[in-house]
Amino acid sequence: MSSQPRKLGLNDLPAALNLKPMAVVENMNIETNILDPVVVNRDFCRFVLEKKGVLDSGSIFTFRLLAENAGMNARVHTPIRAGIHSVIRNATLKIGTKIVSQVQDYPYYKVIKRCFVSQEEKEGKHHVKYGTNDGLAPSTQAASATLEMKTGFQSGNNKLSYGALDLTSLSSTTAEFQIKLSDIFPLMRNIQLPLFVINEPVSVEFTFNNIQAEGQINISQADPGGGVIYRPIARLDPNSVQMVADYLTYDAATMNETAKEVMSDTGLFIPYEDLILTTNQIPVPVVTGQTHTTDIAVSGRKVRSIVVHTNRFSTNPLHGVYSSEGLRKGESYNFRINDTSMYPNDVNKEHKKMRELSKVFGVEIQVPKIEFDLDLQVADNGAENQNIITGTITYEGKAQRGSLEAKHNYIGVDLRTNNSMAVGNGLQIGQKPIQLVRKFDKVLAAEAQASTQRIFAMVERAMILKDGNVSVTA
Amino acid sequence: MSYQVVNREQVEISPLNPPSDNLYSFRNGNPVVSFVIPNQNKLLKASSIRLNGEIIVRNGAGAAVNNNNAKGGGGSQVTMNPRVSVHGAIQQITIMNQESNQTLETIRNYNRYLASVVPVTQSQNDFESHLSFGLQGSNHRVHGNFFNNPVGFCIPLLTGLLNSNTPIPLGNNGVRGLVIQLELTPDNMLLHNFSRAANTDATANGGAFYQLRDLTLTYELLNVDGNSQSQMGIPSSGAFSYNSVNNIYSVINASDHTQTYNLGTSNTLSIIHNFVPTTQINNYLFDSLRTPALKNIVGNNYGEDIAVNEVIHARGGRNFPIDYEIDETVANANSTPITNLDMNFVNAIKPIPKYNHSLKSLFTETNKGSRFNYQSLEGMPLSTESALFQNDLSAAGAVVPNNKVYGIGVSFDNVSKVGVSFKDTPYSLRIKSALNGNSPNSIYTYTFNKNTLLYSPSGVMVQN
């Protein structure tokens, strides 16, 4: 008899673990526990889950940030697109000592993903839930020959919309934000963990951004009043870190179905997605041209997609360290995959770049063109000869033009072998790593700066749950 | 026939007929762009097709325009309709099979078709985000700045065939390759003066013009397994159905007007009509791609919108599919929304249960300002807006705004999606309105129907 697990897709999982409506309506018991971490400080925390029921992927973590050194009018809030996500640097999901999923530089991936959330959702939902403030759209200021960007909460010029979401120095008055488990781990977007049949303890660990430099988790506005300059900072309140865990229990037949699979000869095979991060530095491009090649460490894996964040300037006044800047002209790129170029011609136009990025997420991009690239402002020779955003307009006290234009410029490539978004159709990579080849043909002197490149590869992995013991593929 | 897809392939092709200077333009005699997707044993994911390129707008003397004087130093101010934008540069799309040039679909006046379809199916937020990469804009005045520099675009081709969800077999056991031919729009249809106050900018020196360069077509091919590949390569008999859009042009002038059309289609799903004053087409002084209501000439100008009080759709002389006249007399008299007329129009483009994004609203239909409309809620006097945004003037010189997403339409079969036959039976549209008989308004009519492509070893045939 074979002891190899059956190769199943997500649709073959027991109904209790699959995130889709059940065929039959059943009674379900939801037990919500508010968990305190077993270890917590401003750098790290660990939660250990109880061995009961099925862990709902909608379970959440709560966080509060406290302002320090805030003066009368000195304000501090989170980076406008990263929001509370900026507080988590790395996140790890473990079963026993095995790392099942690990997300590094989590907020950098999150700002890319949030470009595909509708403006309505950003304004109405994420604003209060995550402390983000990026439901920006060109305004109706038809009287002006240029435009201002504003959210639905604003009217007129130079408005502030954080208001009640400004951070304060007191736990009782500062805003509390929350992040869903499935927001953090791609694994939890498709499945729910059957805790009741897992022998070893399941734990979630966070490494926090506890860097006080402007732009990590702080966007501050100094108060120059009274001769003293207050420059506020934000720090995590460790007492606020909690997990609201929902344990689901279905009727006996449904739970037994899962248990039976786990206890079978083959065990339960659970395919899932995970992120692999490759980080490197691109040296200062020379003005006349340079090619930069990066090996992406995904040899032997099944890769679904790749997205690239490129931070050229250390801190943006509104996005903090999470901006990814576009160049005026002259950059092109291609991927070499299994010794073949992904595109017949290098991608050298911003509109094609946007299109390739959109394919990764399967929906249309939800940021205005002026936040993605500088095409409208730039003549053939690369000179910026007109403005689209009004120069005098601010947002949260910071100049809009310099802070917003072309600050969400990402590279993306969709490698799924068919159009389904379900796990199981990633592209098999051979022994040679994927190579990202970027060519900087005509970089202007003003843009010739070193940059940090973060490459997120979404890969397919599998977890095998047999007799209560877990093993995972690489 | 179902095929086992193994992987996807990204393809980018250049036109067959590149001009020597790589600049396609109507004015300089290169108004046709042809692409060939060759016969191969693969499936075409037609909805992935995008036309990529850059557009340059120049004044009659050949200088780049400078709308809003955004670049400083003055210069000509010439722009285009923000809702259709660069899509408007395509006047006609013809899709043929490569082997015998059998026409699979032709949409004439493609840009006028999009003038209705895009705002009905896309919301303000869509215009402000992903549609801005097709150079569609959310603010008419700032939209002018989009064309002050050569700027790239990436747009889908919104034909019926290319937006059917079924992948198209390109091999011998399928369409045997595709030819996509784009005909460019005349300059004075796409472009118009940015400002009425300075109304010579577009017309001076022989008229403003646009050029397209670096045109490519990108798309995805689905590679199938070896067994399926060999099946695709062997000519055999088969069929697949696809949606198609057809256009008919006519003119209305009388207050009680019945227009009869021989559609010649056997699976007709729906029909829509949009309108524009006839003398404002191909006219640098006016935006030819707007969709106003019917208008009367008062004095020398087309002025206020006039009321359409009754509409009857008929098949073979009998009211169909609505067996009563759509009567908006009371709504028009009370200036309330013409809901029955509007909802049938929308339903003809997108079924109401699926209608979830739209620019069309009471803001547009009652000419109120919104973030998209030419009028602004934020303080610009209406008279200034009129000067800037091509509004009409009444006989007394009063401003008549033109923001509507206006049209008349009806769906013949929202349930079975099989459609209704107009093969041997004419369709007629009767409009009772306040037209004065001296004001020709053009009607652009578009039908949506199902075609069937039949292929056999002897060739390819289209049945409609």
Q: Summarize this, please?
A:
Chain A is built from seven helices and 27 strands.
What would you say this structure looks like, in words?
The complex is a heterodimer of chains A (474) and B (464). Chain A is mainly beta. Chain A contains seven helices and 27 strands. In chain A, strands 1, 4, 5, 11, 14 and 15 form a six-stranded antiparallel β-sheet that branches. In chain A, a hairpin with a 2-residue loop joins strand 19 and strand 20. Chain A starts with 27 loop residues before the first strand and ends with a strand. About 1% of the residues of chain A have low confidence. Chain B has 464 residues and is mainly β. Chain B contains nine helices and 26 strands. In chain B, strands 1, 2, 4, 8, 9 and 12 form a six-stranded antiparallel β-sheet that branches. In chain B, strands 13, 15, 23, 25 and 26 form a five-stranded antiparallel β-sheet that branches. In chain B, strands 14, 18, 19, 20 and 24 form a five-stranded antiparallel β-sheet that branches. In chain B, a hairpin with a 2-residue loop joins strand 18 and strand 19. The longest helix of chain B has 12 residues. Chain B is globular. The two termini of chain B are 21 Å apart. About 5% of the residues of chain B have low confidence. The chains are: A mainly beta (474), B mainly beta (464). Chains A and B meet through strand 9, helix 5 and helix 6 of A and strand 1, strand 4, helix 2, helix 3 and strand 8 of B.
Question: What portion of the residues of chain B fall into strands of 2 or more residues?
Answer: 35-45%
Which of globular, elongated, flat, extended, rod-shaped describes the shape of chain A?
globular
Assembly category: heterodimer
Biggest interchain interface, per-side counts: A-B, 49 and 53 residues
Share of residues in strands of chain A: 25-35%
The span between the termini of chain A is 26 Å
For the CA atoms, what is the radius of gyration of chain B?
A: 23 Å
Helix content of chain A: 10-25%
Overall pLDDT of chain A: 86
Largest sheet of chain A: 6 strands, antiparallel
Distance between the termini of chain B: 21 Å
What value does the average pLDDT of chain B take?
Answer: 87
Q: Nearest-angstrom radius of gyration of chain A? A: 24 Å
Count of distinct strands of chain A: 27
Q: Which residue ranges of chain A are poorly predicted, with pLDDT under 50 across at least 5 consecutive positions?
A: 155-160
Q: What's the number of helices of chain A?
A: 7
Structural class per helix/strand content of chain B?
mainly beta
Shape of chain B: globular
